[in-house]
Amino acid sequence: MGALDTAREIVKIAVSSGLGQELIALLEKKSALLSEQVSTLESEKAVLIKRYLTL
Prior knowledge:
55 residues; 85% helix; mainly alpha
């Protein structure tokens, strides 16, 4: 399970556990931010690997 899947699971657990709507909204925002950061890091990793292979 990757980081994006984990973030999605956190939101699913929060929704199904009956947490308050404010807390669920906050978790969704944080999950989206985490997903964005993971995507950025994966892109940067791909660039670094490409540069490494051209050395």
